[in-house]
Amino acid sequence: MKNLSSEQIRKEFLEFFKSKGHEILPSISLIPDDPQLLFTVAGMVPFKKIFWGLEDPKYPRVATVQKCIRTNDIENVGRTPRHHTFFEMLGNFSFGDYFKKEAIEYAWEFLTQRLEIDPSRLWVSIYKDDDEAFEIWTKDIGIDPRKIVRMGKEDNFWGPVGPSGPCGPDSEIFYDLKIPVKECPDPDKCTPACGCNRFLEIWNLVFTGLYQDENGNIGELKRKNIDTGMGLERIASVLQGVKSNFETDLFMPLIHKSENIFSVKYGAQESTDISMRIIADHARAATFLIADGVSPSNTERGYVLRRLIRRAVRYGQLMGAADEPFLYKYVSTVEEIMGKSYPEIVERRSFIVETIKNEEERFLKTLDQGLAMVERIISTSKKISGEEAFKLYDTYGMPLDILLDISNEKNVQVDVESFNRHMEEQKRRSRENLGVQSFVDSIYESISNFKTEFVGYESFESESKIVAMISNGEETGSVLSGNEAEVIFDKTPFYAEMGGQVGDTGRCEFSGGYASVIDTYQKANLHIHKIKVESGTLRIGMNVKLIVDERRRKSIARNHTATHLLQAALQKVLGDHVRQFGSYVGPEKLRFDFTHNSPLTPEEIEKIIMMVNDEILKAIDVKTKIMPLEEAKKIGAMALFGEKYSDTVRVVFVDDFSKELCGGTHVSNTGEIGIFMITSERGVSAGVRRIEATTGTNVLKILLDQSKMIENLSSKLSCQKEEIENKVKILIDENQELIRENGTLRKNLILQNVKEQCENSRKNGKKFVITKVENLNSSDLRDVADDALRIFGKGVVVILQENDEKTTFIVKSTLNNANEIASNLSKHFGGKGGGKGEMAQGGWNGKVDTGKVEKILEELLK
User: Fold this and answer.
1) What is the pTM of this model?
2) Which of 60, 592, 719, 764 gets the most CB atoms within 10 Å of its CB?
3) Where are the beta strands (DSSP E) in 368-489?
């Protein structure tokens, strides 16, 4: 048997199937072009439409190494030798070309000849009724019939995804690890049918030759297909002679990273081994998700990424991680292991590092708050209710599995059933919000085979015919004056809202009246025009004249072309990691969301503004070209992440400065934009920034308004315009001086009150004094504590301060026990604290309770 690295295994696999006439295709993104899937979960995902018969294959046989994400069994990751969230699937596929015989022969040849695996170590399972596969394995391959196990539908039949679809029996190949397994009920007669883990499944060959209808009836497909999958991590563990996937070259460098960071040894303790395996797995998954454009958030893909990062951080804390980020340090190791095969993680490494680090920092802050809440809950109860668990998830971003880990450590229960009910209630409310629209959408399904002809690139007007109308949620034949409706025409010059660009407005003129077109949007192939009949009666089948609001459309076009220039400038100034994350293009402004981890500096913003305006002043022709999608990708045309594109696309060119896939409307020359101005830049979520900008006469209006404001300031400040800045500086300095004087007075008043308390406590022979203050900064708080201790003389002084439902405190002591007091005080209220013997500080979320503080101190200073 060959001893191969993971890189060599990928190469051997692809070269083998290339020699067998397979087209080698690259891995697709982890974000598939499939609305039914959150992630790419298997090697067959890119070919789903082919398997369903919805699309003809370009190649009869292909092979891939596909990156995948699955989180359905995340609780097993790190606790078993084989479970992962991110993994690679080696697969060969046939679309109506070869079938069972060739698929089995190729798999056997690759394993036994190319990889030189001992055939005596290989076993096979087949579907219980698949005599054809049995004949191939025994007669053509020559495998001992005793090493073929027949299994039922639950094990060896690949069912349809959903109630209907392609399906078929499969045959799995197992590697006999030949290790004694304590759980095995009958070691002498053990086979792959036994669940004792002696046999490792390494390859699944699915014979997709059947189709199941909605009633469960199964028939044969006209075009029989082959779908195979072999996990790279599993076959690597076999070839590298290790007991676990985590001991292969895909994971061990990450394990070693943990050993260095946490000063632990892998193999020394099961609990730390589990933590190291989880961190290694999640570091890989997070790296690849971010490389493919996912940012941490509280919904869908972003939430999965956030959950992975937060789980890893939590397991790092179990190994003694300090309250500072560490997971981002693994990205460079993932790059070393896999960067050669996946250059996207090399190209975006710095962005991936920043994204993970920022998310870690964010979670560490909320984790403190969440843990404090957990401490408060369990201080009075040994059970966390579903409502409390949901609040921890919804408010503090604490995933349920992390809460369950914590609850196990604290020996408390979580009402998971109630938590799930709260989650379902939230989902139900979301579904209800979509209910009314889904009813209206169903009406359009009856004409979904119709396609509106769009003529708006060439003209602002068209002679059109009414195809359908909906009013008040029902189809109608006529709409009277004063009423609104959604209207579909056979052709239209109105651009439908799409790709961030707002829909057109305008007029619809017809015999005997006219209507205002309020908005235009798209459903499937249909342009829906929201109209209000101003006079006359609009009837189905009527010929009308459609007229777009030209002035508004041109303003939108200026902003849209400027958006393309902005995206190109952002990549040139900030780096290739910049990706569009969303946009809005209207007549008054444009909004552009993009991936970037830090605020733009004034210098960067100025450079971007100047770069865009330089392209405007060059008066470059804006050209469009229809071309194949693959050709557009080859020339480097930018595409919107997650957008679904057809095989033929429209590319908008601004010389060599910008190339972008886009169906929107644009100026014909950059000079028409006039001028470009950024009006704001801010963060909108983790790793996503937002720029708002505008163009043309909108910029002139802003400049005129600013000029008026400067005139008004000049008048109110009684100075010349050029003196405004200096005059404002003088006023600010005077105001700061007044604030300082006020602060000194307030501090003196506080100190007088503290002095009285200290003198009273000293007279009463107390060992400590507790005082509560308000609105002091950290420096003044320390000064008050120093003065209080000086007045008190000998003992302990605790100064408490409450701001925004949060308590902070400082401890000063002549008994060299300030650190002990701060730690105990913080821990009691679910916070954190510490320092040195003479001075320490801390805090917690919640209000001040001086009575409890006094009792704690009395106990500590007995």
Assistant:
1) 0.63
2) 592
3) 383-384, 413-414, 453-454, 461-471, 474-475, 478-479, 484-489
